[in-house]
From TrEMBL:
Transmembrane segments: none annotated. It comes from the Eukaryota. This is SOSS complex subunit A homolog. One of its GO terms (cellular component) is cytoplasm.
Length: 218
């Protein structure tokens, strides 16, 4: 078959089977990243940030009647593209996260929605490197005190505990434990009714029993 000789483009986020097509969400984030790169280029940090902010501002000039809608679309594209950079490029992840912080400008709803979509739709197929970069995202988000980040962290814990590969689950949950240990003051300052702590207790107590059973069987 003629099409079978065409090499499939490898995804930077997902482990795809031989006949699987690139995921629509991954493609969307990757397209946003291409726009981010076209704006940032090899500019110095401040100039690159100005270019990203200008990209959102320019969208408002396209149409007066639809300016707010178009501007939000571009904002969403840039946010998604920067998140893709954080997850796919560990070397430059800090640069993309700093730019994400600037563009978000204190309003993290769009960024956290994108992270939730990655967790719900892509997590089981993510490369190990991308999974480690998710931990990087949470580490940085806790550092800058992103609102509601604890609610999104719950989704990471639940996805890591979804009954997939045991070693992969333990590796991610161990990473989460390290993250929480590093940020104990943040954890202890969560609101009393925050859902994160009960979820942590349930999930990690369950995994302790799994590890104990696995140890006895070996």
């Amino acid at each position: 078959m003629e099409g079978s000789s065409i090499a499939k483009k490898p995804g930077k986020l997902l482990n795809l089977g031989l006949h699987e097509q690139q995921d629509e969400l991954e493609q969307k984030l990757e397209n946003g990243f291409a726009i981010v790169l076209s704006r940032m280029g090899n500019l110095h940090e401040r100039e690159a940030h100005d270019q990203l902010l200008q990209a959102v501002a320019d969208a408002k000039l396209v149409s007066y009647d639809l300016s707010e809608f178009i501007a939000f679309q571009m904002y969403e594209v840039v946010i998604g593209g920067l998140l893709y950079g954080v997850l796919s490029d560990p070397v430059n992840a800090s640069k993309y996260y700093d730019a994400l912080t600037l563009v978000a400008n204190g309003s993290w709803f769009c960024a956290l929605c994108n992270v939730n979509m990655v967790l719900f739709e892509l997590y089981p197929r993510l490369h190990n490197e991308a999974r480690q970069q998710i931990l990087f995202f949470f580490r940085e988000s806790i550092r800058v005190n992103v609102p509601k980040i604890d609610n999104v962290l719950i989704n990471l814990i639940r996805n890591a505990n979804d009954g997939g590969d045991f070693k992969d689950s333990c590796k991610m949950l161990t990473g989460v434990v390290g993250l929480l240990n590093e940020n104990y003051p943040w954890l202890s300052n969560l609101k009393p009714k925050a859902s994160l702590i009960p979820v942590i207790l349930i999930v990690f107590s369950r995994n302790v029993s799994w590890i104990a059973r696995n140890w006895e069987e070996t």
